[in-house]
Structure formats: C-alpha cells, structure tokens
Design goal:
With 261 residues, the chain is an alpha+beta fold. It has two domains: 115 residues; 82 residues, Beta Barrel (Thrombin, subunit H), CATH 2.40.10. It is 67% helix and 16% strand. The protein contains three helices and six strands; from the N terminus they run ααββββββα. A hairpin with a 2-residue loop joins strand 3 and strand 4. The longest helix has 111 residues. The C terminus is likely disordered.
Length: 261
C-alpha cells in the first residue's frame, strides 16, 4: 500500500512539474508578446507626435497664408478706393476747367462785341460814383453826429427816468409802510395784549401804533410790544377804541413818527 501511495505521489509530482513547465513556457511567450506590443505602442506614439507636429506646422503655414491673403485684399481694396477717389477728383477738376473755359469764352465774346462801353465813359461813371460815395460818407458822418446828440439826450432822459423811478419807489415804500395790513389771530383781554401774524415784519418795530378796524370801522388801537419772526405782539390801548379787539379784526400799521406828530 505504501508503494502505491509513493507511486501516486511520484506521478502527481511529475505531473505538477510538467504543468509548471508548460505554464512557464506560456508565461515567457506572453511576456515576449507584451514586450513587442509595448514597442509597437511606443513607435505609434512617436509617429503620432510627428503627425501632430506636422499638422501644427501646416496650420501655422495656413494661418500665415490667410494673413497674407487678407493683407493683399486690404491693399487691393485700398487701391480701388484710391483710384475711385482720384477719378472723382479728376472729373471734378475737368468740370471746373470746363466752367472756367466757358467763362473765358463769354468774357472774350463780350470784349470783342460792339457793345463794349467806352473807357472814357467808364471813367466818368466811376468819378460820379466816387462823388456820390463821398457825399454819402459826409451824410453818414452828419447823421452819426446827430445820433450822438440824440444818444446824449436819451442818457439824460434815462437819468431823469431813474430819479423818477427812485422817487416812486420811495413813495411806494412810504405808502406801503403806512398802509401795511394784517389780522389779529389771538387776544388776551385779561393781560390786554393781541397777537398779529404779518408774514413779513420788515420795518415794524416796538412802539409802532396799529389801528384796529372791523368792517371798515375803527374800533381800537394796539401799540407794538415785540416783533418775532412773522408774529407781532402788541398792548391793547383801551381808551383809544370803542370796543375791545377780537380775533379776525384787521390792523393797519402806522409809523412811530406819525404817532408823535
């Protein structure tokens, strides 16, 4: 039995060695093929880089060719515009030249016709025109002198007008000062004062007299006590009126100078 087992073990070992030898041969073959494939891949990569470089060179050459073509087209268009511009200039010059030639022919025809004025007559006419011009210049000088006089009169009148306007303004100011009106907004009978809203209190000062009216009738008087902003506060003068002032009554301001007279 032992011999059989040893025999089987020897057979198994021999078979294993055989299989291992076969696998080694297969592995070496596959390794060699792999090396060959890697070499081919390396060569293909090199060929691809060469192709890419060639394509880049061709694209660069193509771009250069396009630039050259564009420059040539631009120069061609510029030359065409320049030719058209010069052609137009030549045509314009020719038209002007034809016009000048026509004018020369007309002048020549006039000079050679029998209707040309006599030079002596032309000189006489020129002298007459010169005399008229001198007379006109003298008339203009006289008119300018008269105009200066009128301007001086206008300036004098303006001065008088300015003085009149100043006088009127002063009179209006005095009139407005005497007839400035407002309304009573509040009255305190206990303390005897009234409040008036003026808006513009310029020229109003303490001790100015204020006449109080109601329905166009004088009913009393107030003497200005204080002026603040657009509000005036005054003391009611009981003995100067027929009745006590009320809110809504009209007040007329008089100057302190007038009150002393």
């Amino acid at each position: 039995m032992t011999k059989i087992i040893l025999l089987l073990a020897a057979i198994a070992a021999g078979y294993g060695a055989f299989v291992a030898n076969e696998n080694k041969s297969e592995f070496l073959k596959l390794h060699t093929e792999n090396k060959d494939l890697e070499s081919k891949i390396t060569r293909l990569k090199g060929d691809m880089r060469s192709e890419e470089a060639s394509i880049g060179d061709q694209e660069s050459a193509l771009a250069t060719a396009k630039t050259v073509r564009n420059d040539a087209e631009a120069r061609r268009d510029f030359n065409r515009r320049e030719v058209r511009s010069r052609t137009n200039s030549v045509n314009t010059t020719r038209t002007q030249l034809n016009g000048v030639n026509t004018e020369i022919q007309e002048i020549t025809t006039i000079l050679t016709s029998s209707n040309v004025p006599d030079p002596d007559a032309l000189n006489s006419s020129l002298e007459e025109e010169s005399t008229k011009q001198v007379e006109l210049e003298q008339a203009i000088e006289e008119q300018e002198s008269e105009l200066d006089g009128l301007r001086a009169q206008v300036n004098d009148k303006r001065g008088v007008l300015g003085n009149l306007r100043k006088t009127i303004a002063e009179a209006n100011a005095a009139f407005n000062r005497k007839t400035r009106r407002a309304r009573i907004t509040a009255v305190d009978p206990e303390w005897g004062f009234a409040i008036m809203n003026m808006g513009n209190t310029a020229g109003i000062s303490p001790n100015d007299r204020v006449i109080v009216e109601r329905a166009g009738q004088r009913v009393g008087m107030v003497v200005v006590k204080t002026v603040s902003g657009g509000r005036v506060v005054g003391n009611v003068v009981p003995e100067a009126g027929t009745t006590a002032p009320q809110p809504g009554d009209t007040v007329i301001f008089e100057s302190k100078k007038e009150s002393n007279e």
